[in-house]
């Protein structure tokens, strides 16, 4: 794994997150969001939603990294990926509110 490989991986993550329809449908974020709202009715729905989406996408990209580089993601790269995920949360939320 070299810096060019990491840059390509990070760009792949950004490109993947730009395809929100496919991600939202694949992980059924809307269905899971509706179930949580009805069953759990969390007081801070936004935090609950963001935590769920972040955890799912974090797992997705850790597995993608492992399959691409045959090793675990390092913490610095993981923090970068988490920041990219967090920057896309408003768009994912907006997509679900449509």
Distance between the termini: 40 Å
Strand content: under 5%
**Rough outline:** elongated
Helix content: over 70%
Q: Quaternary arrangement of the chains shown? A: single chain
How many domains comprise the coordinates?
Answer: 1
Cα radius of gyration in angstroms: 14 Å
Could you walk me through the main structural features you see in this protein, from its secondary elements to its overall organization?
This protein has 98 residues and is mainly α. It has one domain. It has five helices and no strands. The chain has helices at residues 3-17, 20-27, 29-39, 45-69, 75-97. Helix 1 packs parallel to helix 5 (75-97). It is elongated, with a radius of gyration of 14 Å. The mean pLDDT is 83.
Mind sketching the topology for me?
Blueprint: H1 3-17, H2 20-27, H3 29-39, H4 45-69, H5 75-97
Characteristic terms for this protein:
98 residues
Quick take:
The protein has 98 residues and is mainly alpha-helical.
